[in-house]
Structures are given as structure tokens and as C-alpha cells.
Amino acid sequence: MKDRGVKKGQGFSWVEIQNKVHVFGVDDGVHPQRDGIYKMMEKIWKEIKKIGFIPDTESVLHDVAEEVKEKMLMHHSEKLAIAFGLINTPENTTLRIMKNLRVCNDCHAAIKFISKVVGREIIVRDATRFHHFKDGQCSCRDYW
């Protein structure tokens, strides 16, 4: 992770696709597919909000405007890894994401909605447990 500039204590997520590991940090801007990833995440964000997702801006500890907080949440590493996975894998396949820290409240809620919107199972292994998201539900039953 050293070559990506990831600092100790900083959150990052990774996904393996076609035997290559892709690592994402928060607000990651160095991935070669950055533009497509951000467009996909923006599309997903709009779709999940349409069906009831409300971003947990209380999770953002910075003193910035609500719109900025929402943008920061949209670009968390696991969400970027999921967007990348959706772009680069066949429909109806399971996405498997690894996260070095515990998934935050906003990401957990968002991934439940994402699994419903995209019709895929999304497995996220964070520092605590495996989360199997499917049809808007998580295997942890929101006890993470």
C-alpha cells in the first residue's frame, strides 16, 4: 500500500478483478478508471436516494457544508471499490470487497441500498467481520 500513499490509520479498500488487486483510498483520484468510477458512483448515489437512502452526514466530523459532507461520504473507499467492481464485472456476479478498517454507518446503510438497486450480492470483509449484502439486507442484521 506504500506506493499508493496510504498512511497508517487511513482507510482503504481493495477488490480483486481478473487476478489484479485494485486499491482505493477515500476520495481516490489516481485510479486509471477514475472518471468512470466517479460517474458510476454518482449514478448509484442518485438511485439509492430515490428509493429512500439518506446519507449519514453526522459521520463526517469536518466542519463543512452538508453538500460537501455528502460528497465526502459518496467517495469512501468501499463505495469506490464497489463502483469499480460494477463497471468491471459481469451482471449478476458477486462483488467481494476488502476493507482495512471497520465499515462506517453511512457505508453500511448505503451498501444495503446499493445491493438492492444493482441486484447483486456484495460481500464486504472489514476489520471486524464479513458483511453479506443482498436485496437491501445485511447478514449482520445491522449489528456491526
3D architecture notes:
This protein is α+β, with helices and mostly antiparallel strands. Helices cover 36% and strands 19% of the residues. The chain contains four helices and six strands, in the order ββαααβαβββ. It has a six-stranded mixed sheet, with helices on one face. The longest helix is centred in the N-terminal third of the chain and has 17 residues, at 34-50. It is globular and about 40 Å long. The relative contact order is 0.16. One of its GO terms (molecular function) is zinc ion binding.
SSE inventory with pairings:
Elements: E1 12-17, E2 20-25, H1 34-50, H2 66-74, H3 77-88, E3 95-99, H4 105-118, E4 122-125, E5 130-134, E6 137-138
Put simply, the count of helices is: 4
* Structural class assignment: alpha+beta
Query: How much helicity do the residues have?
Result: 25-40%
Main β sheet profile? 6 strands, mixed
- Report the mean per-residue pLDDT as an integer: 90
How far apart are the termini? 26 Å
Contiguous uncertain segments of 5+ residues: none
Q: Sketch the topology as an H/E string, one letter per element.
A: EEHHHEHEEE
What would the principal axes of the Cα set say about the shape? globular
Provide the spatial order of strands within the biggest beta sheet: 2-1-3-4-5-6
Count of DSSP E strands? Answer: 6
Radius of gyration: 14 Å
**How much of the sequence is in beta strands?**
15-25%
